[in-house]
Amino acid sequence: MKKIIICLVAIVVVIGGIYLCKVSINNVIENPNNDLNSGDIEINSGDENNIETISKLETAYKTIINAQPENAEALILFPETSDDYINGLYEGLKDIKMKEKVIYVHPIGMACEIALVEVENEDDIEKVEKIFEDRIEKGINAAMCDSASQDIWKRRAEIQVKDNCICMIVLPDGYEIPENIF
């Protein structure tokens, strides 16, 4: 009986997840002027009262995820929202005025991380680049990391900038880092 209840709960969760993740092709038809590179886009889930806005940075994150080879294992990254944790990784980022930040980290600290920031003031771009460079150096020199992780930080970490948007990305071998994610 316990197994049946667990199976029913699992089925309800899966069906609920599918329903919540459903995005209608009507978005392309109803919102043909959405420009994925210019800012926020709207996703219409079929219910005209339920229009979700996806930010420029979330769109860039999805671009990275969608660029992965079909035969690659799924990237396991969790969104990080704790300002204390983020400032521990990116010391000084809390002092920058941002329109938005989107940060995804691996749950067990592997060399797999995506940080996207849109600054309010273009004078802060160099500051954020420096913060991201410091993060990469920490990854390369981390005493608690094994040599393979340090090597990934050294070879596979990069920073991209477009307008007021900055991205720091490090992915393990076998994954693609798009040339222009913004």
Compose a concise summary of this entry:
The protein is α+β, with helices and mostly antiparallel strands. It has helices spanning 2-21, 26-30, 56-66, 83-89, 125-141, 147-156; strands at residues 41-44, 51-54, 78-79, 98-105, 113-119, 157-162, 165-170.
Provide structural commentary:
There is one protein chain. With 182 residues, the protein is of the alpha+beta class. It has six helices and seven strands; from the N terminus they run ααββαβαββααββ. It has helices spanning 2-21, 26-30, 56-66, 83-89, 125-141, 147-156, and strands spanning 41-44, 51-54, 78-79, 98-105, 113-119, 157-162, 165-170. The strands form two sheets. The chain has a five-stranded antiparallel β-sheet, with helices on both faces. A two-stranded antiparallel ribbon has the order 1-2. The longest helix has 20 residues, at 2-21. The chain is globular, with a radius of gyration of 19 Å. It starts with a helix and ends in a 12-residue tail after the last strand.
Structural class: alpha+beta
Total number of strands: 7
Shape label: globular
Q: Quaternary status of these chains? A: single chain
Mean pLDDT: 80
**Distance from first to last alpha carbon:** 51 Å
Secondary structure blueprint with pairings:
Layout: H1 2-21, H2 26-30, E1 41-44, E2 51-54, H3 56-66, E3 78-79, H4 83-89, E4 98-105, E5 113-119, H5 125-141, H6 147-156, E6 157-162, E7 165-170
Antiparallel strand pairs: 1-2, 3-4, 4-5, 5-7, 6-7
